[in-house]
Each structure stands twice: as C-alpha cells, then as structure tokens.
Amino acid sequence: MRRALTSLMIVAFAIAALAAAKPKFTATWKAPGAQNVTYVGKKIVGLVVSDDMSLRMSAEQALARALSERGVQGVPAFTLIPREEIHDKDRAKGWFDRAGAAGVVIMRLVDVSKEQTPSVVVWQSGVPYGSLWSYYPYAWGVSYDLTPGRTDVTLVVETLVFDVAGDRLLWAGTSETTNPAGAQALVKAIVDAAADEMKKQGLIRKK
Prior knowledge:
The chain is globular. It has helices at residues 8-14, 53-68, 89-99, 120-125, 132-141, 183-200, and strands at residues 24-30, 43-48, 73-76, 103-111, 154-163, 168-178. The protein has a single domain (8-200), classed as Double Stranded RNA Binding Domain (2-Layer Sandwich). Helix content is 33%, strand content 23%. Helix 2 (53-68) links the parallel strand 2 and strand 3 (73-76). The protein is of the alpha/beta class. Helix 2 (53-68) packs parallel to helix 6 (183-200). The protein has a six-stranded mixed β-sheet.
C-alpha cells in the first residue's frame, strides 16, 4: 500500500543536515481586486496539509507566528479543528465560521522534484481552486511516494490565500526550496518570500 506523503515537514526533517537554499517563487497569481482586501487586525488561520500531527502542529505554529508579525491574528488550524474532523470540509467550515476567521493561508507540498507543479492557468481555471471549499477536499486527497536515495531534494510548495467570507482564492504561489534546514525554518522562509511577492503585486501595503 502506498504511503501518502502530503507533508513538507517530513521531507524537511529528513534532510535537515544538508545545506539549505532560500525559497524561490516560480509562479504567482492574484485575483482581480485582491489588493483592495485588508486583513489587518483580523483572524487568519494557518493550515499546513499533513497527516503527521506533530509536524503539522510545529509548522502551523510557525505559520501563525509569521502571519502575526504582519499585523493579523495568526491562528494555527490545529487549535481550532479537531484532528478527526480536519479532512471533512463541512465540519472544518463550521469551525472556521465559529472562530470568526476572515481568511486562511494553506501550505501544501505538491512535489519533491520539478516534474509537476501548479500553474497560473490551473489557478485561473477555477477548479478546484475557485473556492476554499472546492479546494479543501482536493488538497487532502492528493498523495504520492517520495523516491528514496536523493542527496539533494527540491521541495515544491503551493501557498494559497483564501478569503473565508467571500469563499474565493485571493493569491496563489508555487515556490521551490532545495534542502531546507527544518520545518519551522522552511515555513518562515516561504512566508517571508510570499510576503515579498505580495508586496510587489500590491496586496501588502507598506506602512
């Protein structure tokens, strides 16, 4: 039986001893009018798609801290949604609604090489990326095997920003990181790089 590897952290810890490179965004997309949306002071949930709970907790805490540093209320998804309900989009939606979440940032490992990566065309097509709740079950359902024996590993990570109230994708990006130093360092580096990209595109306004 194939083992589902949906966690960027599993790979990150396995290669922690190797030299790390900074994330590089190879593709980004923003929704029309996204620059008019502001989340300053609002609750933003950070979700890392992984079935490894301990690693997911660590990464989501790092993601929430990185979000809070940018003026929003970063909240790790594991503190809101029970583990046994995280895969169920309807139950997850209820937890987001009750928490008063304004947005969600989702990070997902999509490849451990450069063979297949999401593209701007895919994000624009609307399926399954058109809304948070069409994307949600898709994200938890995609899996693949990690080929052993690599000395250098390039992680391809998809970072998405969804507006909860409007149920729409605001921003998407695909980044590549070679030999990350660890889970929390990887998440922070990707968030930093994503923030730089969003500033260039006018989604994050300078103070």
